[in-house]
Structure formats: C-alpha cells, structure tokens
Amino acid sequence: MSLEPIEADDLDDLDLPTPTPQLEARQFDAGLAGRPCRLVRAGARTRTLRVRRWRADAGRSDRWLLDGCQGPTVDLGCGPGRLVSALIERGVPALGVDSSALAVQLCARRGAVALHRDLFDALPGEGRWHHALLADGNVGIGGDPVALLRRARRLLGPRGSVLVELAGEPGLWRGPARVIEPDGTASGWFPWAVVGVDAIGALAEAAGLHLDRIHRRRRHFAELRRH
Q: Which domain holds residue 204?
C-alpha cells in the first residue's frame, strides 16, 4: 500500500540518504536479523530482546498503540517496520525512522517507507505529525529519555501525542549497555535507558508533555500530550 504524505513537498525528503559512518548504528542488527539477543546493562538485570516480535507482523499486543494513531504517525526507531506497515494497511499515513541501514532495508521489504537517519536530524513534517511512536523500548535511545521526548515533542502538531512503550520494571535506569548473542558475540557499549510506568510522568513533564493515559497489560504503554 502506498504512503499518503502529509504534504506533497515533504516527499522531497523521502529519498534514502547515502549511509555515512556516523549514521550507521549496528548495535541491534543481530536482533533485526533474527538472532536471539540479550541487552546487558551495567549494574542492572539483563533483558531479553523481543526479536521475534520485531520481525513479525503487528500482533494483538500492538493494538493499543495502533488504535491510538488516528492521523499521520512517525515511528522513531521503527526497526523492521511492523507498526509502520500495519498503520499503512489501516489507511494511516506513517513513516519509519531508524539509524540502522538493515532496519530500513527490512522496512522496504514490507512495502513500508522508512528513512535511514538519526532521529535527532531534520525530518519531514517537523511540527505537524499527529503522533510519534516509541515502541519496543525505544524511549531508551541515547540514554536520555527527557532529551528524546523533547525531540518527539518538536515533531508533533499542537494536538499531537507521543505513544511510548514502558518497561515492566519500576523506576528509571540509565547507563551503558550492549547487545550479546548466544555465542558471546557482543556489540560495543552504548548509552541506553529503561523507563518504568512509575517514572514516565515526571520525565514527560520535564520534556514539556503531560501524561494523558496509561495502559497496563502484558505490555505497558503511555500516551503523552503537549501542554
């Protein structure tokens, strides 16, 4: 299904840029490729990465996120594009953004549009998106959730919202992490964060957002809105 752009002139930005060493981010590529992986965190419990979910089609547990997207949506750290693809199938304009070239290639195989770009770089539709998605723990990107939420806020229109997935563990963890495969192959260390349900309200306020609603089931989500 083709992607309906927000505005016609935004299409100028949809050509995938030539990858540069700074743009390449391969920490999660083993998981994107389907290999079982764990996220090892300094001083904290190791977390199993949900690799099968990343690569599968959107499932029942994704429905709350998808139902919350009622207009043009940008998926930050889109991975293989299951949510972008599902939104397009629903008739919702959607764009993925990921710093991994492999992720963007996997999106293209689904017929989803994604940019190979750092999410802090200029993106099409700045200040006009209805929704920004931070699923699958992506609120941890960069290790600074407040900075990331502020970036997401700048992408939104006046009534826009950020839909974010939260961890089952309480509190906020920030620190170095790396991805390890079963054979011991490991990525380099990189900054990451894990945000629990009880921590998201204060982080949202610090980013100029307010906590609108929380969904707690097998997975935990929150919707944050601009003040």
A: 61-173+194-226
- Residue 201 placed within a domain: yes
Tokens 């100029």 -> residue: 208
Q: Where are the alpha helices (DSSP H) in 29-122?
A: 29-32, 51-55, 63-67, 82-89, 101-110
What distance in Å separates the CA atoms of residue 207 and residue 219, rounded to the nearest whole number? 23
User: Tens-digit pLDDT profile for the chain (227 aa)?
Assistant: 322 223 323 323 433 333 333 334 789 999 999 999 999 999 999 999 999 999 999 999 999 999 999 999 999 999 999 999 999 999 999 999 999 999 999 999 999 999 999 999 999 999 999 999 999 999 999 999 999 999 999 999 999 999 999 999 999 999 999 999 999 999 999 999 999 999 999 999 999 999 999 999 999 999 999 98
CATH of the domain at 76: 3.40.50.150
Q: Say if residues 206 and 53 touch (Cβ distance below 8 Å).
A: no
Number of structural domains in the chain: 1
